[in-house]
Amino acid sequence: MPNTQTIRWGIAGSGDAANRFAQAIPHVPDASVAAVWGRNPETSATLAKSCGATQASALDHLLQDPAIDAIYIATLPDSHAAIATAALAVSKAVLCEKPVTANSRELEAILTLAQQQRQLFMEAMKPPFFPVYRKLREHLRRDPIGHITDVQSGFATATQSHHPSWRLETAGGSLMGIGAYHAFLSIDWLGPADAVQAAGIVGQSGVDAFATVQTKHKQANAEWFSGLDRDASAGATITAEHATITMPGPWWRPDTITLTYNDGRLVELHEPAVGSGFQYETEHFCDLLRSGATESPVISHAHSRATMAILDQARSQIGVRFAAER
Fold first, then answer.
1. Second-level CATH architecture of 128-276+308-325
2. Looking at the domain 7-125+278-295, which fold is it?
3. Which long-range contacts (CB under 8 A, 24 or more apart) does 86-92 make?
4. Do 243 and 139 touch, CB atoms closer than 8 A?
5. Domain locations in the chain?
6. Residue 157 and residue 145: Cα distance in Å, rounded?
């Protein structure tokens, strides 16, 4: 694929994430939305019209469209695996919203198929692509802070009972919707977890209403919480030998990061995000697709595996089981 080729996107889904993705596309060089499909014809039509795309009458029509290079999956988590499988089977590159699947078994099947088809597959995990997060990484290369000794984060938001996050049948719960970000953070700074310990509150619908998770990694531990039943935010704190990094909540949409050094120095990094913020991961994906890559070096398949492994173990310990796991 030529380095200047416009990447033509098909969007599966017409909810909040799909709309924010579409809003981000004008900020991505050489990218456009070609078609939109969603279970709700009215919201799909509205989204398609807003970005000058066609409305696909069926998922199969979206996936079979020869004008489409890549599929962005923004449906509810229980359908991610089926849509990703169908897209990869017809040689479409896939950017799949987090949580990438409902469990590790589904993820492994998708990664195997992506490898067989030699197609690019990436979980849409946006934090590491935000300008200030990348600026933090660049700063640490110039001014290292030593070994990380602890990672803590937390966020909860009181969510209305009719919201899909409360539905067991669509792989909802605070762990899947919010915890995926916290699991990412722990892995990004400490590597895969060697052990997971979780506790939580299971709501009437069968999903976790609140969860606290501790993960043990090779060099340090991480602690975090997620919730749908209350409002609470601890932001994110990364403690190291020579400094402490703090990100206000919700930390996965960062524009300011502060480093407090043990020697008294205070460094504040500030880089406001433009628009919805989805453009940063999308531009990365488009560059990978043009280069012929089948995996992101930032959100690698191993990274997604490690994230899903934490979520699987935490759900199991709390007592949340999805339909396909019973």
1. 2-Layer Sandwich (3.30)
2. Rossmann fold (3.40.50)
3. 86/59, 86/60, 87/12, 87/63, 88/113, 88/114, 88/117, 88/119, 88/121, 89/113, 89/117, 90/63, 90/64, 91/117, 91/119, 92/10, 92/63, 92/68, 92/119
4. no
5. 7-125+278-295, 128-276+308-325
6. 32
Task: Give me the sheet containing 7-12, strands edge to edge.
Answer: 54-55, 31-37, 7-12, 70-73, 93-97, 121-124
Q: pLDDT tens-digit profile of 132-147?
A: 999 999 999 999 999 9
* Burial (0-12, 13-18, 19+ Cβ within 10 Å), 42: exposed
**Model confidence pLDDT, tens digit, residues 145-175:** 999 999 999 999 999 999 999 999 999 999 9
| Strand 221-227 versus strand 148-156 pairing type | parallel
Helices 104-117/301-318 angle, 10° precision = 160
Cα–Cα distance for residue pair 54/44, rounded to 1 Å: 10
For the stretch 167-206, pLDDT in tens is 999 999 999 999 999 999 999 999 999 999 999 999 999 9
Which pTM does this prediction carry? 0.97
Task: State how far the Cα of 133 lies from the Cα of 189, in Å rounded to an integer.
Answer: 12
> pLDDT at position 1, please?
62
Q: Contact at 8 Å (CB) between 314 and 99?
A: no
Nearest Cα neighbor of 123 from 298, 291, 290, 276 is 298
